[in-house]
Amino acid sequence: MTDDVRLGVWAMLGEPRTSAALEAAGFDWVLLDQQHGHFDDAAVRATFALRRERRVPVLVRPVTNRVDVIGRALDAGADGVVVPLVESAAEAEAAVAAAHHPPRGLRSFGPLPGSDQAARPFVGVMVETAAGLAAVDAIARTPDLDLVFVGPFDLAQSLGTTVDDLLADDASDAPLRRILAACRAAGVRAGAFGATEPRARRFLELGFTDVVAALDTSVLAEGAAIAARVRA
Ligand code: 3PY
Ligand code: MG
C-alpha cells in the first residue's frame, strides 16, 4: 500500500469521547458526520474540546452546503469539511468559498479559538448523484478543492443500481472510474465511503486513496470479537 493512502474512520454516534479516542486509534483521519450521524453542533464542539493534540485531521460532514453551516464546523475546530450532494462546479465553488476567509472565500471571522485564520481548511465535496457524476470533471477542477469523495449509497440509488454492482463495474467508462479519472486529471485526491473491509479494499484496488475503512459503530462491533476469542 502506498504512503499516499489515507484510511479514515467515520463517526456517526455523536459521542465526543468515542470520537476523540478514535483520533488516537491508528486511522489517518476521522470524520464527524452531521448529515446522517448524531452529531449536532454541541457534540462537534465537545469532540474538539477534548482534543489535546492534533494527531490526525478531524473533518466534519456538514448537513448541507451552506456558508453558515460550514463556517460553524470550522469555527468549532474542524480541520476541514466533506460537503454532501455536490452536483455542479458552482456548488463545488460554493463549498470551497464557504470554507475560506476572504479574499478567497466568504467565511466570516469568528474570534473564539478554533476559528483559526491561518489554517488552510481541507475541502472535499461528495459526488453521489447522477448530476454530480455528469459534472465531475468540472467539479474536480474547482480551484482550492482538495478531494472528491464518492458516496456510493446515494450514487447507486441515483443511478438505479446497487453499491456492489457499482463497485464491480470494470468498464473503462464505469462511474467510479470516471470519477477517479476526473480526480487524477485535476490533481485532487479521490476518496470514497468504503466502510466495510471488502468495499474499502475494492475502492483501494480501483485507485481511490482516501477511503473510509470503518465506522465508529463497526469499531465497537469488532471489539465484541474479543469476547468470542476469549471464550474459544
Ligand atoms: C453515501 O454513500 O451516499 C454516503 O453519503 C455515505 O455516508
Ligand atoms: Mg450520501
From TrEMBL:
Alphabetic keyword roster: Lyase, Metal-binding
Molecular-function GO term, any one: aldehyde-lyase activity
Cellular component terms per the entry's GO annotation: cytoplasm
Residues covered by the HpcH/HpaI aldolase/citrate lyase domain: 6-220
Family: Belongs to the HpcH/HpaI aldolase family.
Name of this protein: 4-hydroxy-2-oxoheptanedioate aldolase
Organism of this sequence: Amnibacterium kyonggiense
